[in-house]
Amino acid sequence: MHKSVSLHTLGCKLNYSETSTLASRFSAGGFELREFGERSDIFVLNTCSVTDNADKECRQIIRSVLNSNPDTYIIVTGCYAQLQPDEISAIHGVDLILGSNEKFKLFDYAENFEKKDLSCVFTSPINEITEFDYAYSSDVESRTRAFLKIQDGCDYNCSFCTIPMARGGSRSLELSKVIDNAKKLLDLGYKEMVLTGVNTGDYMYKLGTDKFKLIDVLNELDKLDIPRIRISSIEPNLLTDDIIQLVSSSEKFCKHFHIPLQSGDVEILKLMRRRYNRDQYEELIHKLNSAIPKLGIGVDVIVGFPGETEERFENTFMFLELLPVSYLHVFSYSERRNTHAITLPGRVDTSERKKRSRILRELSNKKKLQFYSKNHGNSHNVLFETIKDDDHIYGFTENYIKVRVPARPELENTIVPFTITRTESYNYAEGEAG
Ligand code: SF4
Asked: Which has the closest alpha carbon to 141: 16, 270, 47, 14?
């Protein structure tokens, strides 16, 4: 009888994309795939370690799977497994812990998935990671968008971040393989491809004396028959004029960028060791808005970084309030072992972090509504997703406004013209499709 397996992912889009690749490999090996939560012979958890809470959640999930099904062969991989394998192996019942370099060699390490008394840990020092395990996957929620991984790891040294320690240095997928994967996804019927990576803008592939950058990937993808291409997130210092020019002139590229800022305070930005200053960021946002009308711009921001006094937080708030962007992704700072930030003075109390986070989330909602109103009455193209409840179908405009209309099955996985007529909720806009 075939063994069954269930897989679960925590964290970023890249992790989802990689879990999907693991699931395909299990399926190709004759294993029966089961939903997370169902009883299975094998359980794989692809972990995240971006905050303390993420670590805690990983441990809770492992314990709860073991409680309900003590015989399951448990494999834990991903960033938390790379960074803290000892914490995971201390949980009795975990069988296999695989670091970032070992994740895709799972079948070499699992020894028929037979449970033993002790956990086996396989991790490599992060500076030895040079391999690129390429992955592409569907958006687990919508199944209309696919994530195309083109880059992994990061060479930057932001003072709060453990990702370079968990995923290693920056490396990129050969351009011809990116194009092959994009073609496969097209054949599978996906209408939108979201380019993903840890530091996507840092894409660089050397072939002989040739060097290919992100703009080369984008130009090649532009030649394919892909209805929509979205760049998931890009560091501001890497968003170059040639990329802006291409996104502005090509019908295929979504008029949407997600550009991490992290802080609007000059000094905090320096302490974060980001590679731009506040003025440069502001200049970029204005340049983008003049080059691409109705551009959707999302911004990552961290509150409660060490040394963020009331006044410094206020600087961030005022900067963001005036900045012409459409939404914010707000994170509370979380102390991470072995980072420079953890050594900095000026700890911000947890309750204060929560308060600041709430204030910026409210600002984000306000900005979303303003952006929706600016787009009121305009014609867009919406890619509709699968119907999740009986009443409505949801989709996204090219500039990343979530919209909904009463459910119509014929709209699923299609791109249709859409006019926004109601913008009362920041959760979605409403209008007329087709
Ligand atoms: S750019 Fe900075 S925040 Fe982003 S992954 Fe690299 S080190 Fe981390």
From this structure: 16
